[in-house]
Amino acid sequence: SNGIECNWRDVDPFPVILHRMLGDMAKEGNEHIISWNSDGKSFTIYDSKEFAEKILTRYFKNQTRYKSFQV
Fold first, then answer.
1. 21-64: per-residue pLDDT in tens?
2. Smaller CB count within 10 Å for the chain: N or C?
3. What is the pTM of this model?
4. CA dihedral in degrees (40, 44, 47, 48; nearest 10)?
């Protein structure tokens, strides 16, 4: 086959990456861009432009659209 094989165990699931990203933002002082809400169960993106340009592709390699994070 000419396709690319990917074992799901080789890729971190979305919640794991999201949790890592939010933790890193706190450590790096980037909570003005995105951070956990006080309930610890949800998060807020405060600066969508900076999030899309500087953060999103760092954690989600094939994702460049902020709209994917909107509900």
1. 999 999 999 999 999 999 999 999 999 999 988 888 888 776 65
2. C
3. 0.71
4. 130
Rounded-to-5 percentages of helix, strand, coil across the chain: 50, 10, 45
Task: State how far the Cα of 48 lies from the Cα of 66, in Å rounded to an integer.
Answer: 7
Q: Within a 13 Å sphere around the CA of 33, how many CA atoms are in the beta-carbon half?
A: 20
* CA 50 – CA 32 distance, rounded (Å): 10
Is 11 within 8 Å of 25 (Cβ atoms)? no
Two tokens, residue 45: 């993106």
